[in-house]
Amino acid sequence: MNEPVIVEAVRTPVGKRKGKLSGVRADELAAQPLKELVKRTNIEPGLIEDVIFGCVSQVGEQAFDIARVSALIADYPIEVPGTTLDRQCGSSQQAVHFAAQAIASGDMDVVVAGGIENMSRVPMFSNIQGVEFSDELTSRYEMINQGLSAERIAEKWGFSREQLDEFSLESHEKAINAQKEGRFDREIMPLEVTPPESNGSETMKNDEGPRANSSLEKLGSLKPSFDENGKIHPGNSSQISDGAVAVLLMSRKKAEQLGLKPRFRVLARSVVGSDPTLMLTGPIPATEKVLKKAGLAINDIDHFEVNEAFAPVPLAWLKETGADPEKLNPNGGAIALGHPLGASGGRLMTTMIHELERTGGRYGLQTMCEGHGMANATIIERLS
């Protein structure tokens, strides 16, 4: 098989709901990292054999196969196709998997994977339009929302509200520190934007989500969102956000032929189904599965990115896997940085790539919980 490698990864800043990116059409936002990949690598875009994008709410500006539309907006040749997929929160991580699989099989040599979600302009659940779950489904499974699933995970693993809030505050503190140290500078492409109620444009260089003024006292004052006696509230949940990301993958042979440096190889991939009621525990078996595929142990991994859908999710993952918490989301996670659904998997991957290069780490493992009980996991290896 061919060896799939990552040559470049870039993302937009992540905007908060109704923030600086809310004035940018979703398809035009998705085109920005596609353009930046070409700019950074000087690759001829006609060499790209497919654009695979994750997007959860495929309606309005995010409909009509946004991967294809955005590739055209990015001035890719008309011969470059595009396809859009939905594996819930893991959609753009799955896009990376599909790209790597196409390369490994020999079907393709150059593929762009990524994702988009502008949740300010295309709200979550807008693609459902009031449709209820099938009676055939609800007769088999208890279908509840993710917030209630997070409540059940907190209860099952015995996490107090204070523990959840402490984890959330730490996410913000790590993100603020990473911003101050410039850790995101290489992975983020600056964008010219016109914020709402602004008199002119400005250059957006940073994620809007991290809050330097957060505190345990402020988090403790927030009302529960899903159960009046519960522990889950806006401060220990991921943020509704806007953003886009693109990752350039190639066969190692093709990258070297083009004079491009293979920065990481995609070592192993997994995807699992899990309890559709508890829903958010899939990263635990997905991690076990991907480690087995890679022939590695949890302690071999230098960097973990586990999506912070809700604080109990990474905390339960830590408890079950025995991973070193110091290696988990060292630059903060979705609680601070935001969670633009279809782009989050690629955002985690892009952050992990750049942080492994900054620290000199070898292996990175990324995993995400997904709606209806699923999870992807990916292990990448830095190449010298």
TrEMBL record:
Domain (Thiolase N-terminal) ranges: 5-252
Xref: InterPro entries: Thiolase (IPR002155), Thiolase-like (IPR016039), Thiolase_C (IPR020617), Thiolase_CS (IPR020613), Thiolase_N (IPR020616)
Organism of provenance: Alteribacillus bidgolensis
GO molecular function: acetyl-CoA C-acyltransferase activity
UniProt xrefs under PROSITE patterns: THIOLASE_2
Active site, UniProt feature: 89, 339, 369
Residue intervals of the Thiolase C-terminal domain: 261-382
Native organism taxonomy: Bacteria, Bacillati, Bacillota, Bacilli, Bacillales
Keywords for the protein's UniProt record, in alphabetical order: Acyltransferase, Transferase
Family in the record: Belongs to the thiolase-like superfamily. Thiolase family.
Top-rank taxon: Bacteria
Descriptive protein name: Acetyl-CoA acetyltransferases
Region: Disordered, residue numbers: 192-237
